[in-house]
């Protein structure tokens, strides 16, 4: 299938990357075969400061460019992504280990958010509100916010940055990106592409978008920089717990998209053919490495004897291997640490009385340095503390239930609250699940799985999933500041609440 390092280097050169690939301390590997792809130099604290300062200067100019012209930059970027979709997806596959169709889907998600943002650039509307005073008008105005720091994870190395960047740019903000230290090459490619497009738009100031490769020290420097008005961070709940108080201490704004422990309930009236396909994609797809991956399955005891054997059979047929190969559905885990976490979760599951199907490591020809596993189904006697944790691997814990209300209670009894689903043909069950006493997640679906959301809706979760909302609907409001304006066009000065004074 070819040398991953040579392929990555060629792709990066084609994107016009000028950052040296053999300059330093940050070793980048392909999860496909463990090959070293590059040694980047980590950004220093001084570089972070200078980059944020340049972004702040760019913001001061960009905020006065009419929003539809800002949208023009994003429109052109979306066009560039359309032209380079296949190549960018190839690089995503090499650096993150995603299979081709999912890598292409990730780039499509970038294109979709660009289209959305272009439309948005002619909206960004505020309300007009009835005033209690005669000849007064109340209104809301949305203004650009400042520098938006974006921290992304390896599993969606480019789409999550695009969600943030497309919106931030039309909202009049500048963006400074710290990609995952595991996937900085795709970030360099995206940056080079956006820089080329920005160079051709006279209104786009230098420094409007920047990328800072490096590890957690770079993230901390961004977190603590008072000129970073909004820090949008995607990663584990532990990362969010570290970042949020630091940003709050300087009265900055945070948008957190953290871990999930996503559940699905399969009721007696579920269409089991659909449920089966949805479960396999959500739980085993992306090798279980989405924040929306399905991790907990609650099956009604009347359908479990039918559904479980079918699931075991489907899991056994999944082709695990080099994600560049046709027919492969399950690529590698990201690295040795992910494999160790997978192994220890399975050991703990077995100690908790779990019955494991699959989960063994798979050796893939020509990919000795990669960590490949067969997705695991684990029949659990109950929701133990292990099941309450997010293990970023293809492990699906399966439990049975008798009463829907009890299943919903169990579903909600974990720290996270990102994505959820119910499979049912019963209107009452569906509405209960979507109601105030139903799923407590930011995403609640009916007859589709937990993963693979479209960009049109707001994306994010509650509780330890962080509370932030990205992408569609009114998520743009996080990237702007709101001013409430009261305008008096009378010749009097009536005070609100009937107060009289001077
Ligand atoms: C993530 O895993 O961090 O809904 C984002 C989904 C994708 C995005 C996932 N559209 O699965």
Automatic annotation (TrEMBL):
GO terms for molecular function: aldehyde dehydrogenase (NAD+) activity. It comes from the Bacteria. Keywords: NAD, Oxidoreductase. InterPro entries: Ald_DH/histidinol_DH, Ald_DH_C, Ald_DH_N, Aldehyde_DH_dom, ALDH7A1-like. Residues 25-482 form the Aldehyde dehydrogenase domain. PANTHER family: ALPHA-AMINOADIPIC SEMIALDEHYDE DEHYDROGENASE. This is Aldehyde dehydrogenase.
């Amino acid at each position: 299938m070819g040398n991953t390092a040579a392929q990555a280097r060629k792709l990066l050169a084609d994107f016009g990357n000028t950052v040296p690939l053999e300059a330093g301390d940050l070793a980048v590997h392909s999860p496909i075969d463990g090959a070293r792809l590059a040694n980047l130099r980590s950004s220093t604290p001084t570089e972070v400061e200078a980059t944020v300062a340049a972004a702040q200067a760019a913001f001061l100019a960009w905020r006065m460019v009419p929003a539809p012209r800002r949208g023009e930059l994003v429109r052109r970027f979306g066009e560039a992504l359309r032209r380079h979709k296949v190549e960018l997806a190839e690089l995503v596959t090499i650096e993150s280990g995603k299979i081709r169709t999912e890598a292409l889907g990730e780039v499509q998600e970038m294109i979709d958010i660009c289209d959305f943002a272009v439309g948005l650039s002619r909206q960004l509307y505020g309300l007009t509100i009835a005033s209690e005073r005669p000849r007064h008008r109340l209104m809301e105005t949305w203004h650009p916010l400042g520098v938006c720091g974006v921290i992304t994870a390896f599993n969606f190395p480019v789409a999550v940055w695009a969600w943030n960047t497309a919106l931030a740019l039309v909202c009049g903000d500048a963006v400074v990106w710290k990609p995952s230290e595991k996937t900085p090459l795709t970030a360099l490619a995206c940056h080079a592409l956006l820089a080329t497009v920005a160079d051709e738009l006279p209104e786009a100031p230098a420094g409007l978008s920047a990328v800072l490769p490096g590890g957690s020290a770079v993230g901390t420097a961004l977190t603590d920089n008072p000129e970073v008005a909004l820090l949008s961070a995607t990663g584990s709940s532990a990362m969010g717990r570290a970042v949020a108080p630091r940003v709050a201490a300087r009265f900055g704004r945070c948008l957190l998209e953290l871990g999930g422990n996503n559940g699905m309930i399969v009721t007696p009236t579920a269409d089991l053919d659909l449920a089966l396909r949805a479960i396999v994609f959500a739980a085993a797809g992306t090798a279980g490495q989405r924040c929306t991956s399905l991790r907990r399955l609650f099956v009604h005891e009347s359908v479990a004897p039918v559904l479980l054997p079918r699931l075991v059979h489907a899991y056994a047929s999944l082709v695990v291997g080099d994600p560049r190969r046709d027919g492969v559905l399950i690529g590698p885990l990201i690295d040795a640490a992910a494999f160790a976490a997978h192994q220890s979760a399975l050991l703990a599951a077995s100690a908790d009385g779990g019955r494991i199907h699959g989960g063994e490591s798979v050796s893939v020809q020509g990919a000795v340095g990669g960590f490949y596993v067969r997705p695991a189904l684990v029949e659990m006697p109950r929701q133990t503390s292990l099941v309450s944790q997010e293990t970023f691997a293809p492990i699906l814990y399966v439990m049975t239930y008798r009463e829907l209300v009890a299943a919903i209670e169990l579903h909600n009894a974990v720290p996270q609250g990102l994505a959820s689903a119910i499979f049912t043909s019963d209107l009452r069950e569906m509405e209960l699940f979507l109601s105030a006493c139903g799923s407590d997640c930011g995403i609640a679906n009916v007859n589709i799985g937990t993963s693979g959301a479209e960009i049109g809706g707001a994306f994010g979760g509650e509780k330890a999933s962080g509370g932030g909302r990205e992408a569609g609907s009114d998520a743009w409001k996080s990237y702007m500041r709101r001013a409430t304006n009261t305008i008096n066009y009378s010749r009097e000065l009536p005070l609100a609440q009937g107060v009289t004074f001077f």
